[in-house]
Write a structure and sequence with these properties.
By secondary structure, the chain is mostly beta strands. It has helices spanning about 35-45, 185-195, 265-270; strands spanning about 5-10, 10-15, 55-60, 60-65, 70-80, 80-85, 85-90, 95, 100-105, 110-115, 150, 170-175, 195-205, 205-210, 225-230, 235, 245, 250-255, 255-260, 275-280. A hairpin with a 7-residue loop joins strand 16 (about 235) and strand 17.
């Protein structure tokens, strides 16, 4: 049987691919892998198509058993990967023999790992995607011990790569100001870029709540009509402490967005752990 059996999941383990774009008009966000760069890299290492479904492992703790000889890879956060108790390197192609277990420890840096298996995880697609959207509830449920994951045939030419460099440790994220930066005082716009921000415990696939020594104050106190939200948006609620939207963000919101993290830094944002201190730098 071409399958993987989940033995332990850690805090959260979901099936992800590149998401389901094009459905915002019916209230469905894109979702998909929070760190698309690591997701794509994992698929390249096993010769999959880039949209093949992987496992997104949040803060380690995953343990699974192969029911067949499988080619796998693990990318993303800096974690220890063991196969039947023997440590193996990340960001490379690994052979997981039938009956052997693969286990991921808690990361020493970063938050999310991506495990790809040649052929991809074969779960039913919803609106063209196998991604688990934790906000809308679309896609497969978060994994639990005992889940059997069938492996599909979503592979491409082989080999695609045998090693990819690990993601760099990033503490500065680049942003484009707007679209509602004029709703904030000049000092607030300056503070966004000058003071450090701490990632709080109140963070998940929907977004990251940030805490700064001085909150961002508004220049306009009126109500803002709901408008579309995008990945990387820095929405500022009445508390003045921004929320950085990630993969499962809502498609609309009523609080002003002071800036948007650039697409190039979206993967780095997805690897931020509670307690991390970051800064923003304006581009453009």
């Amino acid at each position: 049987m071409r399958a993987l059996t989940v033995l332990q999941t850690g805090p959260l383990c979901t099936v992800q691919d590149r998401g389901r774009p094009g459905h915002a008009s019916i209230g469905v966000g894109r979702s998909g892998a929070a760190d698309l760069l690591s997701h794509d890299a994992a698929n390249r290492l096993v010769g999959n198509n880039s949209d093949a479904a992987t496992l997104e492992v949040t803060f380690g703790g995953l343990k699974l058993r192969a029911e067949f000889d499988a080619l796998v890879s693990v990318t993303g956060a800096h974690s220890i990967c063991r196969i039947d108790g023997i440590q193996h390197g990340l960001h490379s192609t690994l052979l997981l023999r039938a009956g052997h277990d693969l286990e991921l420890a808690t990361p020493t840096w970063g938050l999310r790992n991506y495990l790809a298996v040649r052929g991809g995880i074969d779960v039913p697609a919803v609106l063209g995607s196998r991604a688990t959207d934790t906000m809308s509830g679309l896609g497969p449920e978060a994994l639990s011990p005992g889940t059997v994951l069938v492996v599909g045939n979503d592979s491409a030419e082989w080999p695609a790569a045998d090693f990819v460099p690990p993601p760099p440790i990033r503490t500065t994220l680049h942003v484009t100001l707007g679209p509602r930066e004029n709703w904030f005082t000049e000092r607030a716009r300056s503070l966004l870029l000058s003071q450090p921000w701490t990632v709080t415990q109140d963070s998940d696939r929907v977004g990251i709540r940030l805490d700064g020594a001085e909150p961002l104050t508004r220049a306009i106190d009126g109500e803002l009509a709901s408008e579309g939200m995008v990945l990387g948006a820095l929405q500022v609620p009445p508390s003045g402490q921004p929320v950085l939207f990630l993969a499962d963000h809502p498609v609309t919101g009523g609080y002003p967005v002071i800036a948007v993290v650039t697409a190039a830094d979206g993967a780095a944002a997805a690897q931020l752990t509670p307690g991390s201190r970051i800064r923003f730098r304006a581009v453009g």
